[in-house]
Amino acid sequence: MDCKKIIYQVLPRLWGNGRLSGWDKESFDYLHALGVDYIWLTGIPRHASGEPFVKGDPGSPYAVCDWYDINPYLAGEEDRRMDEFRSLLDRSHASGLKVLIDFVPNHVACNYSGGLALYDWHDADWSDTLKVDWSNPASEAEFIEILRFWARMGVDGFRCDMVELVPPDALHRVISAVRLEFPNLLFIAEVYKRENYRLYVDTVGFDLLYDKSGVYDILRGIMAGSRNAKELTWNWQFLGNLQGNMLNFLENHDEQRIASDAFAGGVEKSWASVAYAMLFNRASWMFYSGQETGENASEGADGRTSIFNWCHPRSLSHIDSYIHGSGMLEDKELDTLTRYRRLATLARSPLFCSGEVWDLCYCNEETSGFDPGLNTAFVRYNSDEAMLVFCNFSSHAVAVDVVIPQELSDAACLDKAEASLYAPAYGYALLKIK
CA Rg, the chain, in Å? Predict the structure, then answer.
């Protein structure tokens, strides 16, 4: 990708009034202020609900029972639900925001009755689903029509679920066929194995991939004390020219909330990780709704906001009141939001969006005060400016004189041999050096 994108994942049933009508001007203005380019509306295609096999109530967005319908509970008037979704797309586009929905190619709900061929078994513990039979040509042809259906309605792209369980050659044909009519669609793959990354970009044709086994797992491990900051450099070296095809995140519907007791117990320990994930190289960034104000999933038992049951995340209720002028964010929530907005503004600036990157860890391993296991540093630069970013994952503040090698000074036209920085515990520091 030429420029990093910012994506905001949200279950519409948790936003505002829980219906499509809740997506109003105030909602779009709020996301604009957060730097968002794409809204990923999770749980639009109609999923199974109210059946004995369904997990939770209303059930999982990943057990689709009708690929040509949306969930009735999202509509103000059920018989006009498709019109209401088209209206949401129009409002979003008019505001300058694009919309993603899910593409779930591996399985459907147990009561699915459409044109996909199915096996009579399911993967893993997904007992509310049946696996799609991709050996039957009918499945490939039907998925092409499904994606065309949503693209013709105005959807701008698809987040593709569990692609490693689907034949890559078939996925390539599906994406290629749909792009003949809609060349600008954004395709994002949920990929877990780093050794598969190049396949899904170069061969299958995805634009962005989850860097789950890279940046996410490493940063989470660093925060937990089980991983080493050096691994961030190794991951960058492994990715090579794929870095711009990565989608970085620290939360999504599958992962635990940063502020939950099951993860970091609060946002305070996350800022070095957030800064790295948002500012390093050209990788795109994804928010999970409520993350920007420190949602801790206190209504759940496992640190996750449930995708199976009706729930009411406290932070999303506060955000709704805040953007509609009927309430205020708590001081800690507002501080968290302000910090995320500041980082998002940087991430979308020309320097951090598409500038070059220079990892400084190799020349600072012996620098006094620099701990290679708990610190990382890099420079983003272009012809006009340069900024040094220092991330401190340790539990104490760090003051350090970061070495700037001559080869970087030559490449970026700098006149510094070192730069003095101070970063708080679990924090980061930025220094303009050109």
Answer: 22
